[in-house]
Specification:
Elements (H helix, E strand, L loop, with lengths): L6 H12 L4 H24 L4 H12 L2 H40 L10 H30 L5 H28 L3 H8 L2 H34 L8
Helix pairs in contact: 1-2, 2-3, 4-5, 4-6, 4-8, 5-6, 6-8
């Protein structure tokens, strides 16, 4: 349908096109906009306007996409920051506990690890705790204020990226120094395969969410500076 024939549908569709953020939050916002516009149309019709003019009046009162999209995108960006922080606070310690369980049960090694590998493992543990603690700050802040500043969302993306690169890089070095470790772990305890799969899944989820946080925060800044509100 064209804008002239269905201004409400066209307006909502354009908002849906330009906004980027967590799918469930965005869907809820779009539904709220659609219902609000429908109520406005009904009110205008009660005052004597025909359906087409009532819809056009409701859209005018609501504001153009260029006016309302940046505000809505700011909210979506804040929600993305909260999601990234939550993933970091939950998944990083969970991964640490899972791997520590493998080490503490002795199922990961047929012989004690070298001092270098043990030191790297402690470094991974320490970095994991630092990342989780750093993410806890913006997560708690997100529950104290209705809308996080976009730079906080960007910060969660940076924290997530540092966590994945740092912990992942140290883990790669550990595997290079102990190339038979994975085989020994899997042979000694098939549960190690579950820990490996969980770690990989957690890393993928955090990476995706961190990238989205960085992208949305940058997109909000461009929008405020007068660029197209659509976040590419």
């Amino acid at each position: 349908m064209t804008t002239a024939l269905d201004p409400i549908g066209a307006h909502v569709a354009e908002l849906d096109r330009v906004l980027r953020g967590p799918a469930n939050v965005k869907r809820s916002m779009i539904t709220e906009v659609r219902e609000g516009l429908a109520d406005a149309v009904a009110a205008h019709q009660d005052r004597g306007l025909d359906p087409r003019h009532a819809a056009a009046a409701a859209v005018r009162e609501f504001g153009t996409v260029g006016e309302v999209a940046p505000l809505m995108q700011e909210e979506l960006t804040a929600r993305q920051g909260r999601r990234t922080a939550l993933l970091l606070v939950v998944l990083f310690p969970a991964t640490l506990v899972a791997w520590d369980a493998v080490w503490m049960t002795g199922s990961g090694w047929s012989a004690p690890p070298s001092a270098t590998v043990a030191a790297l493992a402690r470094a991974v543990d320490s970095l994991t705790l630092v990342i989780a603690t750093a993410a806890l700050i913006p997560l708690l802040a997100s529950f104290r204020t209705a809308r996080l500043p976009r730079w906080v969302t960007g910060l969660t993306g940076v924290i997530g990226a540092l966590g994945v690169v740092g912990c992942g890089g140290l883990s790669v070095v550990m595997n290079v120094l102990a190339p038979h470790h994975d085989g020994q772990s899997l042979a000694a305890s098939p549960a190690t395969a579950l820990v490996i799969a969980f770690s990989a899944t957690a890393g993928a989820l955090v990476t995706r969410s961190a990238i989205r946080s960085l992208r949305f925060a940058r997109g909000c800044r461009r929008s405020d500076e007068g660029a197209d509100p659509q976040i590419r």
